[in-house]
Design goal:
27% strand, Aminopeptidase, eight-stranded mixed sheet, Alpha-Beta Plaits, elongated, 386 residues
Length: 386
């Protein structure tokens, strides 16, 4: 596959097709069928995993394998981009760039199949449910790492906070570990004119919110970045009734496991203290989701040595979460952001926005990065850089 105009048009066509059929979670039936058809046309025999995901590989001269991963799912967002190839599925949109991610991987898969046999085995996966509940973990549980002798894993994510075409690199922790919580406060209702006869769940909730926010400012080292956010709160029945029930939900983000666990411990202590202070019942269900994305130091060093310094920027870690982290718990890996920001074209909207869009020309940069990573290992004829 020659690098140029023809390839760019292919990537653009893939993206336009996939953008119109966004689907959620593991239920990616149209998307999955499209991907399968393309992979078969390239000469692969796709193996189905995680309900609608696909695994393909090109056997190398050795069994040591490099894993390249893309996500597939969309978001429950009503598109408002105004583009000429909008989502055909009402209330669903590729607002996080996964249509672009899949297009880059299809381009790379075609490239891999058209080359002479590589020294290393090349494995490429199309993974569902990155946005939730976590397709990476399912693919691992279904035996992905038993099928191949995978030594390293790589992935790319489009990123509108970085200028178009630049690679965003982070050495070490890059994205946060995340958890979500559903919390309820049960008090006792009474007439608002007789507050002493009730147990005010709203009053307890107000103190709980303030106390949770103080965890970050007073219980966490300022150099350990973390976030506690309460995103929803619902409570009370009427203006003249002491609230009996308040329900809240939120998220926890931290880059290190010990910080994350300390936040949870502080939350439980606050719950217990306020339960006693206000004579209410507080139930807090904290659900642990994705680990932290943690880029391997040696891979980072090798990539920065290989890339032209003008092609990348060192960026700050982000408190987003990504289930790519599950693969990095198995083998060293590198996750890279690919800039899409073009202020002159209006490509300035953040990920998950109903206005998020990008110029498909940037997808060639993603395929080129995959090719560069592959060349790095092929030139060394070893899977290790240490």
């Amino acid at each position: 596959m020659k690098w140029g105009y023809h390839v760019n048009n292919q990537l653009k066509a893939y993206r336009h097709d996939l953008h119109q059929i966004p689907e959620l979670g593991f239920d990616l039936f149209k998307t999955s069928a499209y991907i399968k058809e393309k992979l078969i046309s390239f000469g692969y025999e796709p193996v189905q995993m995680a309900k609608t995901g696909w695994v393909v590989f090109r056997e190398g001269k050795v069994k040591d394998a490099l894993l390249f991963r893309t996500d597939m799912d969309a978001l429950p967002v009503e598109e408002k981009t105004g583009i000429r190839y909008p989502s055909k599925h009402t209330g669903k949109m590729h607002a996080c760039g996964h249509d672009g991610h899949m297009s880059m991987m299809l381009g790379f898969a075609k490239y891999v199949m058209e080359q002479p046999q590589f020294y290393h085995t090349i494995v490429m996966i199309f993974q569902p449910a990155e946005e939730g509940p976590g397709g990476a973990k399912v693919m691992i549980e279904e035996g992905l790492f038993d099928m191949f002798e995978i030594k390293h894993v790589f992935g790319i994510h489009l990123y509108p906070e970085l200028d178009e075409g630049l690679y965003g690199l982070v050495d070490g922790p890059m994205m946060a570990r995340n958890g979500e919580f559903d919390l309820s406060i049960e008090g006792k209702s009474a007439h608002a004119a007789q507050p002493h006869a009730g147990k005010d769940a709203i009053q307890a909730a107000g103190h709980l919110i303030s106390s949770y926010h103080e965890i970050i400012s007073r219980s966490i080292d300022p150099f350990d970045q973390a976030v506690v956010t309460i995103g929803t709160i619902h409570g009370g029945e009427a203006r003249n009734i002491i609230a009996q029930t308040v329900k809240m939900s939120g998220t926890i983000r931290a880059f290190h496991d010990d910080v994350y666990e300390h936040i949870k411990s502080c939350m439980h202590k606050i719950d217990q203290g306020l339960s006693l202070a206000y004579d209410v019942i507080i139930k807090n269900n904290i659900m642990d989701y994705y680990p932290a994305v943690n880029n391997d130091h040696q891979l980072f060093l090798q990539l920065t040595k290989t890339l032209d310094p003008s092609s990348y920027r060192l960026i700050k870690p982000m408190t987003f979460a990504e289930d790519f982290a599950f693969y990095q718990q198995k083998v060293p890996g590198m996750f890279v952001m690919l800039g899409t920001r073009r202020e002159d074209l209006g490509y300035i909207h953040p990920l998950h926005s109903c206005y998020f869009n990008f110029d498909e020309r940037v997808l060639m940069k993603g395929v080129h990065l995959y090719q560069t990573i592959l060349t790095m290992f092929e030139s060394s004829k070893t899977i290790e850089f240490r």
